[in-house]
Design brief:
By secondary structure, this protein is mostly helical. The chain has helices at 2-11, 17-45. The protein has a domain at 1-37. The protein starts with a helix and ends in a 22-residue tail after the last helix. Helix content is 58%, strand content 0%.
């Protein structure tokens, strides 16, 4: 009976700080990595897609043309 309680205490996350700290470390690494990759993906979706064609008045160009 004492062996059963020892085995369950070793597997319990509250009692065994080594496995629980390792588990929490990997959870933190996974969360950080997912947030970074999600942010990069969001920035990629809203990236600058090039120079738009904008209609500029003839009088405000570098060499203006007047009527």
């Amino acid at each position: 009976m004492s062996q059963e309680t020892t085995e369950t205490v070793d597997k319990d996350i509250r009692a065994n700080w080594v496995t629980s700290s390792r588990f929490l470390f990997y959870v933190q690494v996974f969360c950080l990595l997912s947030f970074v990759l999600g942010g990069c993906y969001k920035l990629y979706n809203y990236r600058y897609k090039g120079k738009p064609d904008v209609e500029v008045q003839k009088s405000s160009q570098y060499t203006p043309e007047y009527k």
